[in-house]
Design goal:
Structural class: mainly alpha
CATH class: Mainly Alpha
Shape: globular
Low-confidence stretches: 279-283
CATH superfamily: MetI-like
Radius of gyration: 24 Å
CATH topology: MetI-like fold
Distance between the termini: 50 Å
Order of helices and strands: HHHHHHHHHHHHHHH
Number of domains: 1
CATH architecture: Orthogonal Bundle
Mean pLDDT: 85
Helix content: over 70%
Strand content: under 5%
Number of helices: 15
Length: 283
Amino acid sequence: MKKNTAPLRKIVFNVVMYAVLSIIALYTLFPLFILLLNSFKPHSAIVANPIAFPNPWNFDYLAKAVVAIHFIKSFFITALISITSVALIVLASSLAGWIMVRAKTIYMKILFYAFTAAMLIPFQAVMYPLLSFFDSMYLKNIPGLIIMYGGFGLSLSVFLYHGFVKSVPASLEEAAVLDGAGVFQVVFNVVLPLLKGTTSTVIILNAMWIWNDYLLPFLVIGNGANRTLTLELYFAKLTSGQYGNPWELIFPAVLVTIIPIIIIFLFLQRYIVKGVTAGAVKQ
């Protein structure tokens, strides 16, 4: 009598799969582990053995980093830019994605393909013409930076919203219209509440990118009075007065900079896969 080997194969497959995923997870988290360890050590200890545990754990380096990067001021500037830009992206892309699905015209299809194609254009290709144009409009400042982020974040966000809106029955909107709802009531009371998963995905993807971005703030704001966290990191290193890399400043400064976006990611990460999948398989 032939034995059934299917359960054994399934067990072996699960063991191998979890082993591989565990190795990938450890590989991914290892830089964060190194960052955490070296945020509480002096420069000499970091250079001597970067993977050794601090002995003792000295929190003074975190306090000095907070002062060096003007954390309170730069945090609120970065938060203002990130929140405003993400809100602009969510509002514009959700409305654009919805109308492109519901208005079944050739023009909307062409517009959607244009948004999709824009994802393939690297920022460096439009960097200098864009900065020149914004400079001529006196927008090389924080409002101009927010507008730039809003524009660059539209392509992927429209793509995600467009895919998910196609799964929303149009009959729900028609029923709301029959009940006397206007177009804005239909959008904000019927459509957008159904897009929470995609909205969470759009928020976390764009927030992580904008929060950690260095190049665009450097080109737009530069060494101005109102600098983002990433710019403060750069200029704190330049003004440290130490030859080479001041690791006892860099590691804790990077740690306090990424903590807020990590917290946001932990709260919203369960929506990412769901939202990306919903926006990708229905095109």
